[in-house]
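Dear colleagues,

As part of the handover before I leave the project, I'm documenting each prediction I ran so the next person doesn't have to rerun anything. This entry is a single chain, and its sequence is reproduced below.
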Amino acid sequence: MLHSPRLTSLALTIAMVLGAPLARAAEPTKPTAVPATTVSAAASAKAPLPLDELRTFAEVMDRIKAAYVEPVDDKTLLENAIKGMLSNLDPHSAYLGPEDFQELQESTSGEFGGLGIEVGMEDGFVKVVSPIDDTPASRAGIEAGDLIVKINGQPTRGQTMTEAVDKMRGKIGEKITLTLVRDGGTPFDVTLARAVIQVKSVKSQLLEDGYGYIRITQFQVKTGEEVGKALAKLRKDNGKKLRGLVLDLRNNPGGVLQSAVEVADHFLTKGLIVYTKGRIANSELRFSADPADASEAVPLVVLINGGSASASEIVAGALQDQKRGVLMGTDSFGKGSVQTVLPLNNDRALKLTTALYYTPNGRSIQAQGIVPDIEVRQAKLTAEQDTENFKEADLQGHLGNGNGGADRPTSNAKRKERPQDNDFQLSQALSLLKGLSITHSK
C-alpha cells in the first residue's frame, strides 16, 4: 500500500510517466486532463500574450503558404508549430498525435508493435538506450549504446526521434535494415523483421540454492504486482527463506511512477521512497513505504548501469538512501523528471514535463544519475578448463575421512550453465551476497 498524505484526488488521476528519452515510453492507463480551475489559476499569473510575436507567427504562416515550393495547409502548419513548441522545451515533452498517443497507451500494457528497441538522441543520431529482452532487436545482437545512423539506407541525422521511430515501426513481419555504429567503429547493417513486442517486465529464478534473481526490464502498470509474485515464487522454489537476492535494473529505461514506488515498497518497511517537486501544487507528491515486507529483509544487491533510467533510478535511489541494499555496477542514466500525459481533443495528447523527482535524502538524479556503492564494469568471462586430474580420494587405497565423512573424488560431470557464468556483474553480485551471508550468519 502507498502512503501519500499530500496526494489529492486530482493528483491521483494525473498520468505520471517516467522513462529515458524513449520512442516507446511507459504511461498510466487512465490519463486525464488538468481541470479548468487549475489551468485558469496558472494562466492568471502569466503576462498577457505577446502581440508582436503573434503577429510575426501569423505573418510567417502567410509567407509559407504563399511562397513555399509546395502547397501547405493550415492544419499541417499548426501541428508542426505545436510539435516545435513542445520539442524545444526539453527532450521529453512532446505533442502526441493519435497514433503516438495510442502507442503510448499500448506500451504500458506490455504489448506493442516494433523492433524492441528503446532509443534516445545523441549528437543528432538515434542512439539505442537498450534492446528489450526476447525481441527481434535483442536476438539480432543490437546493444545499448549503438548508434542508428541509417534506416533502410536513409540517414537518421537531421531527423527527429519521432520521425526515426515512425520509420522503424510498420507492418508486422516486414523486414527493415538498420545501419549501426558501435563504439566508433565501422558501420554495419542488421536486418530484422518487425514483430508484436510482448514485454515481460519481470523475470525471476534461483541462481543457486538460497540465492534468488529478479530482473525488471521496464516498469509497467502491473510490475509491482509481478515483483510480489516473483518474491513469493522464489521463496517457494527455495523451500525456505532466501539467503540473498539480486535485483537487476540494468538497461531498464523506466516506466510508470506508481509501479516504481510499489517495487521499492516490497523491500522497505518505513520511510520515504520518492517525492516530486514542480511549479504547480498538484505536481508535488510524496510516497512512503508500507510496514509490510514482502522481501523478508533478505540481503539485497541491486545492479544498475548506464541504461538504468528514471523509474529504475527511483528504486535504486530509495534502496540506497534507506541503506536497504548494496548498489553495484556503473553510473545510471540520469533522468530525474516526471512527465504528465494530458489528453486533448481528437485522440491527441501532450506529454509535458511537470516535475522533478528526488530520492529520500533529497538528491535530484537529473543529469547526474545514481552512483553505485561498488563500481563493477561489465567484462567478458572466459571459463578455463579444470586442470585437476586427481584428488586424494581418487588414489587407490587412500585412507578414509577421520570423522567418517564421505569421499569427494574428482567429478567429471558437466555443470549446467547458469546466468552468472557469463555475466561478470551478476557473478560479482552473487559473490558479495555469499560473503554477506557468511559474515552475518549466526
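The longest strand covers residues 349-358. The first helix runs from residue 9 to 13.

All the best with the project,
I.
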